[in-house]
Amino acid sequence: MISTRTLLLSIIVGIAASAAANPLPDCGWEYCDDTVLALDGPGIEPIIASRVTAPDPVNNGDYSLRLVHNAPGETPRAHLAYVEDLTAGTLVVFEIARYASDPGGGSCRFRGRYLPDNIDAGGPEDPGGSGWQWIAYQWTITGGHTGMIIEVEMTGEAGDTVWLDDMVAIPAGAGTYTLTIPCFYSVVPVATSTLSGVKDLFR
Ligand SMILES: [Ca+2]
After folding, report:
1. What are the chain's domains?
2. Under the phi-then-psi rule, with left for phi > 0, alpha for psi from -120 to 50, and beta for the rest, what region is 56?
């Protein structure tokens, strides 16, 4: 199923492609072999991360990211985005599409960690359920923090599988920030990315 928001994101991707000098930060796992930025958990591969195509579920384009919990009894994490060089008051707007094949099989939640001190910044609750679902959240950078890691925690059992697609991470504030997501690393100006401007993108 393609939602209205999916369509809007497709438009945003199109805008980004046509404005290479000031790309909007998005990741649909379409353009390179990157999966995640880093893994955090026990063992060599606490999450098995793969870039996949049909018959795996794909929400947009030809590829999505498949994550398989591979750390029995633990809660492994995969880093999806690093946003750095931010100042207090900046909002970090995050959206992602998440798919589970059955309601209990893809237990996960998205969290922020403030940089440079790696403090838990909270995040959206796991919506549960099956099929494609949209998750959206905003963090506010507070004093003393200069950035954020955005990660997904696999909170269920070994073997649980979740698919992700159409990730967007857009700081809204002033100045510039450094963004690292799969297939993208850049210093990006955000002087024009006011919160109202970011919201306009999603209307
Ligand atoms: Ca995709």
Report:
1. 4-202 (2.60.120.260)
2. beta
